[in-house]
Amino acid sequence: MAVNPADGAVLGAVYGSDAMRAILDERGALARMLEVEAALARAQARLGLIPAAAAEAISAAADVDRLDMAALAAATRNMGFPTVGLVKQLSALAGPEAGRWTHYGATTQDILDTALVLQLRAALDLMGADLDRLIAALAALARAHRGTVMAGRTHAQQALPITFGYKVALWLDPLITMRERLVQLRPRVLRLQFGGAVGTLASLGTDGPRVAAELAGELALPLPAIPWHVARDGIAELGCWCGLLGGALAKPASDILWLMQSEVGEASEPAAPGKGGSSTMPQKRNPIGCEYVIVQARGAQALVPQLLGAMLHEHERGAGAMQLEQLALGQALLLTHGALATLIPIAEGLVVDAARMRRNLDAGGGLIMSEAVMMGLAPHLGRGVAHDVVHHACEAAIAQGLHLRDALAREPRVTAVLDAAGIARLTDLAGYLGSAKAFTDAVLARL
């Protein structure tokens, strides 16, 4: 098996997404590090702290394609971080006169963290756009099936009638909230990190705050009140958001998986040649997309404790916490986006069999309406007696193969207070939907 299937050329097709890999891969990280180094030089040149010609040369040299990756790997193996080797190469590429001004006043974590933020900005843009697309697809489903009656199920058993639109609204509502959370967390995550060796910017003297502000403007990033190199709550919050989003994605995937069950057959993933097929059973259409939504969501959730643990940094620079975060964060984002990207085409092309939904309801012989009948009898008999009467009628219906309304018609305590029309009204599947349509409309109104 691959060390990391999500990054493989073959299994990577079902884990993660190429779009997120392109943002978070090592080459992208090195490119962002160079971007930060060049931006720092330009900011300092504008403040008159380094020559303008040096900033121009550093910016021109900050090209990831010009890096010697083998040499950089060797330097990283020796130093533990890529920054020293990268700065050495950038300085050489900029030339001896300009190179002496590279990385002026910065420290390794400034470059690593700010480069990470630039990657995260692109990653969250991608997440937001795709989350909007999923929300739109589910909203369309909820509207289209606002009145499509189906069985609501509890403990895997038919419970009460609902509408499919209501079911979809239950999937949709948390995802709208996740979109709100994404907007709210962005300013807590996407911030400049620039503090020097211990966060005080002592290397730049009294010019430190001016350089930080200029660099923030250069990169279009908010300037925090204080460097956050050992305060990782923003990164941890992003990890928790990935875990929460994973749960919100796994819920519809799980429901669709069970609705695809042969004996249920009420909804299914969109068909495609060979999709979900079996190597031995030609008839199979497995819910393979839903499976990969669920497994990637669980994989991302499993990384959340690691990111929370990486919040512990001793004193003004931790030992090992940054590396722990590096191992977990990219994978959490990759798997979360993989789950999201997998669910989108399922939601957009979901096959809904309303006729099968109705047949499955009818196959229950009206037993799903037992609560409705009990509540209809309660004003006449009292709730406790009504429960016992309906329970007895249900047992008779099951034992004798009767529809519930016929079993009720044989109960003297029922016929004493209800005529045939009254029994028919209380066993009407579409007449006991409660506020399902109103709740569906309320969720859609959130959009």
Quote the average pLDDT: 93
Question: What kind of sheet is the major sheet?
Answer: 2 strands, antiparallel
At the first level of CATH, what is the class of the largest domain?
Answer: Mainly Alpha
CATH homologous group name of the largest domain? Fumarase/aspartase (Central domain)
CATH T-level fold name of the largest domain? Fumarase C, Chain A, domain 2
Low-pLDDT runs? none
Q: Strand pairing plus helix content: what structural class?
A: mainly alpha
* Corresponding CATH architecture of the largest domain: Up-down Bundle
Number of strands: 4
Number of helices: 19
Nutshell version of this structure?
The protein is mostly helical and 447 residues long. A hairpin with a 2-residue loop joins strand 1 and strand 2 (157-163). Helix content is 64%, strand content 4%.
